Amino acid sequence: MDIDSLVERINELARKHKSVGLTEEEKVERAELREVYLQNIRNNFRQQLDSIEIVDE
């Protein structure tokens, strides 16, 4: 699942949660999607940190 569709589904569930509430299956799905999203953010941040090169003058 690409990041755009992941965020779209998370937002869709958030809107539904605010309006009518979520079923237990949807709550589980939301938690799993959030974890995938956060893991993606962590991996991207780790790649950025790994690519930093410190240069002393």
Automatic annotation (TrEMBL):
The lineage of its organism: Bacteria, Bacillati, Bacillota, Bacilli, Bacillales. PANTHER family: UPF0291 PROTEIN CBO2609/CLC_2481, UPF0291 PROTEIN YNZC. Coiled coil: none annotated. This is UPF0291 protein FHR92_000535. GO terms for cellular component: cytoplasm. InterPro entries: DUF896. The keyword Phosphoprotein does not apply. Belongs to the UPF0291 family. The keyword Methyltransferase does not apply. It comes from the Bacteria. It is found in: Cytoplasm. Its main location: cytoplasm. Keywords: Cytoplasm.
